[in-house]
Fold this protein.
Amino acid sequence: MATAALLCACVLAPAPASSGASTTRARAERPEAHPTTLTAALSPERLGAATTIRIGFRVSTPASGTPSPVTDVQLLLPPGLSIATSDLGLETCVLSKLEGGGAAACPPDSLMGRGSALTEVPFGSTFVTEPASVTLFSAPLKNGHPQLLFLASGELPVLTRLVFGALVMPAGAPFGTLIDTTLPLVPSVRGGPDVALVQLQTTIGAKGIVYYERVKGKTISFRPRSLLLPARCPRGGFRFSAHLTFQDGTRSSAATTVPCPRHT
Amino acid sequence: MTRYDRPTRRGIGRGLAAAGAALVLTTAGADAASVAAPARAIPHSGARTAPAASAAVPARDARTVSVNDTGYLKLLHASGEILTEAGSISGTLPGTAIVRLDIGAETVTATFTIKPATGGSISGTGRAKIGSDGRYTSFGGSLSVTRGTGRYAGAHGTGKLYGKIERVHDTLTVQTREGTLDY
């Protein structure tokens, strides 16, 4: 019991800052059943240059409450960013391969980002927090939309492998791109509540990623070019937003802005 | 296994700008002249009020040509969602071209200017839907010629637009099919 309480306390603790000054946070103004915090950062943040997005959300659940699984996540990214102008996702991975063989089954050149997640796994009358690593892959177009695949792998206390897809779509101003993710429900014990995702953070970009290509019969590695920031900063900065839908029917939203870089 | 850092797009752009972009266009179908359909005579601007000038700049026949070109362009500059590709062209309208692509999640919006070797320029826009992923981003849609200068002053037209971006080397293969140009 003490362990479970400690783990839950960790979930509610502030997440470490990911990129210093370029990260801001915002909490939804209305009281919500599952208040959500969104964090975003651009690293590095130089206009016209390559960058890696680090974006994540955290759902706070009252200590007395039961966390409700997130069933849909809509992440809205600022305009002016395009995967197509980067080298990311030169190859694609399909859902069945990822489900069957994990990350190793996907081409290295389909890797798009990495991150982490926390889930609340029901154990008896309590919940235990399980950390998971997250890997993001490029997937084939689906219904004309670019697609991403998330792989979340946890080992303790329960060995889990969760794969889910996200569609990349255009979004209206002031945003440019919508990443729409539908999360599958993960059953726990019979009759018990489903596993709840309470925190997800991932990069989208080339930071820490190595690709491979064949040149004159030799395999060489290279760092793919990352997403390119636009030459001009959008008015008001780079805006990010998240809309979450929960299994209990409630919704939560959060937004954050990465300020425009200061001129030097 | 060798590890290396590939040059940045900015670096590539500078290199291309210095060396001059290479672009190859091929003509598909009949020669432009053979498909030209002379229509009504359009007096050159000022011809009615300045007879002396009209002798120096003779009026020409309006023309309609069908355009079927294929080009291979190289990256000039990249920023955000924007790729700017340029090079020389040959085919129905031989010359040089510069194409600016705004690549969204689902669509590509293009603006282009062609400078035919015979003089003048032709500009327009295009919009196409992205149809593939991975190493190649292909797209298909339509284009409109919206204006021209010189001998192509007042040019307008439409056509089908197809393209393919090879993302590692940032080359753009672009095709115009079933194009019609009036000028």
